[in-house]
Design the sequence.
């Protein structure tokens, strides 16, 4: 597949990194020599310096032979124009990054496909949806449901209260008599471990599991975690992510939003009638205490400053807040959440890159998600009548060591699986895989 990416910033670079593992023919276009050189030094991609709205530049990239043109520069107008021109020059599919959320809400009325734009994505809107998902379980660092919860991906932090601490996976088998959860990943000091029987849980590990419906409570009990119902939420920052988050949450939760810009507060009050707007500095600890940070069930920090967001969440944790989520611009910060005490750090560009990756793989993969900070993807496949995975029971399948099968949904019922499991056609299989072996994993399901 020939893929052209316009914009070699964080979003474009991460997307190119995901696709480079797939042995795709990738061309990166950007006007900045430095970011192109960085991409060339770290990825197996072709680079072209110039504007993606230039016909000659797109023709140099051989856009007429492109299976996909993805425009993800920081300028919305450039992205829309790139997609329109690229489609006119022969690109099969186009994706454009936008910042104006109205395009999303009015996509049917606009009928963007008629002008050459097949898909639009908003990192800010996707980040808000991600925050909404993360709030479902206060005691978990991450959660994602397959088939309306028939299987779930959950994440917990291993601390001194956990029964898992200092035990290997083999040793913890007796703690799982109903076989209703499977450990699929451990994040330790920025390193992702695809665990096997000899791997041991250590203090401060972020451990991830695929669970049957009854398995979630069992994992939380083993981890010594208590679920707290979230009702009151404080959002720090009237950014686009903050606004979108407040809109998505205000019907269900009591929302208090703190924004430093006084004039912006007046606009936010009109735009968010169900949200209490406070004019103030989210870094002001006295203000946070005055506004009842100790009575909040969750704090979401989405100002334009990563350090402010992290510090605000640490203050919240110090005041007993159960759930903290901080938005960070630097993708390298994502790994820090394991060590600094913030429940989850999110990056809107990383979320957007994973969304586009899912869009590209549509048809081969039923579902795809990522875990914040974990160097692996969670994928859901459907077993075809002649799939390779049907040939043997699980223990005898030569599955990659850097991937693990977490569970199977069969006839609407979720099952975690053991070595004697034999797959059947139409099984929906949940797999955690490092990016570099996704292509190999796919081969078992074609």
Sequence:
């Amino acid at each position: 597949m020939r893929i052209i990416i316009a914009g070699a910033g964080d979003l474009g670079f991460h997307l190119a990194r995901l696709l480079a593992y797939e042995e795709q023919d990738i061309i990166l276009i950007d006007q900045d020599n430095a970011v192109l050189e960085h991409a060339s030094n770290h990825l197996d991609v072709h680079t072209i310096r110039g504007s993606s709205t230039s016909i000659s530049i797109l023709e140099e990239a051989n856009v007429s032979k492109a299976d996909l043109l993805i425009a993800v520069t920081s300028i919305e107008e450039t992205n829309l124009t790139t997609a329109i021109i690229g489609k006119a020059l022969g690109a099969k599919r186009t994706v454009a990054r936008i910042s104006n959320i109205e395009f999303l809400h009015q996509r049917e009325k606009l009928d963007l496909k008629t002008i050459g734009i097949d898909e639009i994505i908003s990192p800010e809107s996707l980040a808000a949806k991600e925050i909404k998902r993360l709030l479902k379980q206060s005691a978990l660092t991450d959660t994602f449901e397959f088939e309306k919860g028939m299987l779930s991906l959950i994440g917990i932090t291993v601390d001194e209260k956990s029964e898992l601490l200092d035990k290997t996976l083999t040793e913890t088998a007796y703690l799982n008599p109903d076989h209703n959860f499977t450990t699929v990943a451990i994040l330790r000091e920025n390193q992702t471990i695809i665990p096997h029987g000899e791997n041991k849980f250590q203090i401060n590990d972020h451990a991830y599991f695929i669970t049957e419906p009854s398995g979630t409570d069992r994992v939380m009990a083993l981890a010594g975690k208590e679920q707290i119902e979230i009702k009151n939420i404080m959002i720090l920052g009237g950014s686009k992510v903050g606004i979108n988050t407040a809109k998505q949450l205000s019907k269900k939760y009591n929302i208090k939003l703190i924004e430093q810009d006084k004039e912006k507060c007046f606009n936010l009050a009109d735009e968010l009638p169900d949200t209490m707007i406070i004019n103030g500095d989210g870094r002001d600890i006295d203000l946070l205490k005055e506004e009842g940070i100790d009575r909040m069930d969750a704090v979401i920090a989405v100002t334009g400053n990563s350090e402010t967001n992290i510090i605000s969440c640490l203050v919240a944790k110090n005041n007993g807040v159960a759930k903290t989520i901080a938005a960070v611009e630097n993708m390298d910060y994502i790994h820090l959440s394991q060590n600094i005490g913030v429940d989850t750090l999110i990056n809107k560009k990383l979320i957007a890159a994973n969304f586009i990756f899912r869009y590209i793989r549509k048809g081969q993969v039923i579902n795809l998600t990522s875990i914040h900070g974990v160097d692996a993807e969670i994928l859901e496949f459907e077993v075809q009548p002649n799939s390779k995975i049907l040939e043997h029971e699980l223990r005898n399948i030569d599955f990659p060591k850097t991937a693990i099968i977490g569970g199977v949904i069969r006839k609407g019922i979720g099952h975690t699986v053991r070595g004697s499991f034999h797959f059947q056609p139409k099984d929906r299989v949940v797999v955690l895989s490092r990016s570099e072996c996704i292509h190999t994993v796919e081969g078992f399901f074609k």
In short: The first helix runs from residue 10 to 20. The chain has a mean pLDDT of 89.
